[in-house]
Design brief:
Blueprint (H helix, E strand, L loop, with lengths): L3 E10 L3 E3 L3 E10 L4 E7 L14 E9 L8 E4 L6 E5 L3 H14 L2 E2 L2 H9 L7 E2 L18 H4 L1
Length: 153
Amino acid sequence: MRKEKKKILILVKTYPVLSKKYSELVCTAGITEEGSWIRIYPVPFRFLEYEKKYSKFQWIEADVIKNTSDPRPESYKIADIKTIKLLDAIDTKNGWRKRKDLLFKNLTVFDNTNELIKKANKNELSLALFKPAKILDFIVEKADSKWDKEIVE
């Protein structure tokens, strides 16, 4: 399997999940400096050294390999967590101008769910930037903070 050094702007970090195999994991998604989506999973984020813990909207550099256990086209794994290097963070000044410019300049913005679903069904993408025509509702639900005892122990 070919290892590649990639520069990635972190956009998403999931809430940690427990795993029997990996202990605790997060899934991270971002874009490469070339403007391609990338998913990095699994990441043992809690166990990373402080100088390896990245934030959202921070550039990192790391050696990655294709995640062959995940068929989605954007899925990679960090080859060696020691290769994670934290770079610049993108600030929120001027109404998040720098962040908006990076996203809208480098990514296709979908506004049609049919097109997005068609591409996902053909396994052409599983990550995307979507702009809804109208937001009808926004619901926040508290997550269950109890974890499965089988996995915790």
